[in-house]
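Notebook, bench 3.
Goal today: get a predicted structure for AbiTii domain-containing protein from Micromonospora matsumotoense so we can plan the truncation constructs. The sequence was checked against the plasmid map this morning, with no discrepancies at the termini. Length recorded as 262 residues. Pasting the sequence as submitted so the record is complete.
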Amino acid sequence: MAKDPDLLAQIERGALNDAVSLASLLRKCVALGGATRSAELRDWASDELNGYRDDTKIPEYRIVHAPILADGRTFTHQITGQQISSWDLPDFAREHITNEVRLARGVGEAVLSNAARNGETVVRLQPPGAADLVTFMNSQQGGGIERIYWGVSIGQIAGTLDQIRTTLVRLASEMRAAQPAGTAMPSHEAATEAVHVVLHGGTRNVVNINTAQARDGSNATVMATPTDGKEPGGSKAATIWTVAGVVVAIVSAYFTYRQWRG
C-alpha cells in the first residue's frame, strides 16, 4: 500500500523556497484541507488560487492603494497614463472607484510575470464595469477617453504574493506545533486552530498541565490548571485562612506586649 504523502512537510519546504510555484503550494493546501476535513482551509487556498468572487472575503494583505489613470486621445495628442481623481468620475462611480484596490485575482494569473517580461513597472487593472463607464463618460463629454484603470506597481503585487507565501508558512507552523510526534497528518482540530489564529487573528487555546511522575508502578494523577487567572477553590480558601491566622497572631502578640509593659 502506498504511503500517504506528507503534505504538511511539502508545503513547509516549498513555502520557504521562493523558486517553488506558489500556485502548486496552494493546490497542496487545498488537498491538506480535504485530508484534515477543514473547509475553511480549503476555501482560503482555493480563493487565493482561483481568485476571490466575494469582495467582503478579500484579506487585508490583498488591499493596496494605487492611482486612477486614464488613456485617451485629443485632436492632436495621444494621452497615456493621465492621473485622475475619483472626483473626475460620475457621481455613481465615485464610491466604487477610489485609490483603494482590492486584488481579487488568483495567483495563477500571469499578471506579474507578463509585466516583468515586457519590462513594465506598472500593471494596469481595470475596475469592474470600466468599459461601460468609459462609454457613459464619452457620451457626456464628447468622447476622447479610451480606458480607465488602476496603475498598480509590480512591487505591490510582488509584496502581496509574498504575504500569501508567508501566510502559508504561518499556517503550516501552527499545524506543526500542534501535531503529535510520529504522525504525518495534522488533526482536524489542529487545522481548525491554525485557521483561527492565522486567518482570523484569534488567540491560541493554551492549557497548562501539571504532571505527576509515577514511581514503583503506582498511578500518577494529571491535573489541568485553569488559564483564566482564578485560583482553584481549595487553594483560595487555604490562602484566606492562612492570612487570618497571621493577623490573629499579630494582634495577640501586641496585647501581650502591652500587658507586659504594664
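Confidence is low (pLDDT under 50) at residues 207-214, 217-244, 253-257. Residues 233-261 form the longest helix (29 residues).
Flagging this for group meeting.
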